[in-house]
Amino acid sequence: MNRCAPSRRRAVLTLAAAGLLAAGLTPIATAQDGPPPGHRPFPAQALRGELSITAWPEARLNDQSVRLAPGARVRGADNLLRPPASLTGQTLLVHYTVEATTGLLMEVWLLNDAERNNRPWPTTPAEARTWRFNPTTQKWARP
User: Fold this and answer.
1) Residue 78: pLDDT above 50?
2) Are the beta carbons of 9 and 86 closer than 8 angstroms?
3) Rg of the Cα trace of the chain?
4) How far apart are the first and last CA of the chain?
5) Domain match, 24 and 51 both
6) Confidence of residue 50 (pLDDT cuts 50, 70, 90)
7) Which residue has the higher pLDDT, 37 or 104?
8) Cα–Cα separations (whole angstroms), residue 110 to 31, 32, 113, 117
9) Nearest-5° angle of CA 76, CA 84, CA 121?
10) Whole-structure pTM over 0.90, yes or no?
11) Quick one: average pLDDT of 68-87?
């Protein structure tokens, strides 16, 4: 049971961070280190692409034919689940993950404006392997 009021908790954490700085240590993360406002946390294996659902479960991703996995989840820009069939015929900028064994699309996120403007973001597995990802800030850095 947490008996500390949220404002008191924030003050304690701020004082703790100040104590670390005074001791010559740096805190692991601060509130400013988080993702940009309106940006959801994505896994490091998420790639960016253009998705067009043709006829469930068939789709086109970056002009390549793909299939959505039976348990695929599609989240809208508001992070709510969307039925994939409701997006038929639209071309959307998305982040997505692929099932490792079958190559089927597993998770899809429709991007909001803040996420669209987060560049660079890898579009191929080769880019994701060579770039560095910071999960706290949700930023990629090219080598």
Assistant:
1) yes
2) no
3) 19
4) 45
5) no
6) very high
7) 104
8) 26, 25, 10, 13
9) 50
10) no
11) 93
- Number of H helices and number of E strands within the chain? 3, 7
Distance from C-alpha of 87 to C-alpha of 69, rounded to nearest angstrom: 16
120 cis-preceded (ω within 30 degrees of 0): yes
Tokens standing for residue 118: 């987060």
Q: Are residues 51 and 99 in the same domain?
A: yes
- The CA distance from 88 to 9, in Å, is 47
Q: Which tokens hold the place of 69?
A: 């996995």
Which distant-in-sequence residues (6+ apart) come within 8 Å of 114 by Cβ? 36, 37, 38, 39
Identify the domain containing residue 11 by its residue range.
Answer: 1-33
Q: DSSP letter for 81, please.
A: B
Same domain, 135 and 71: yes
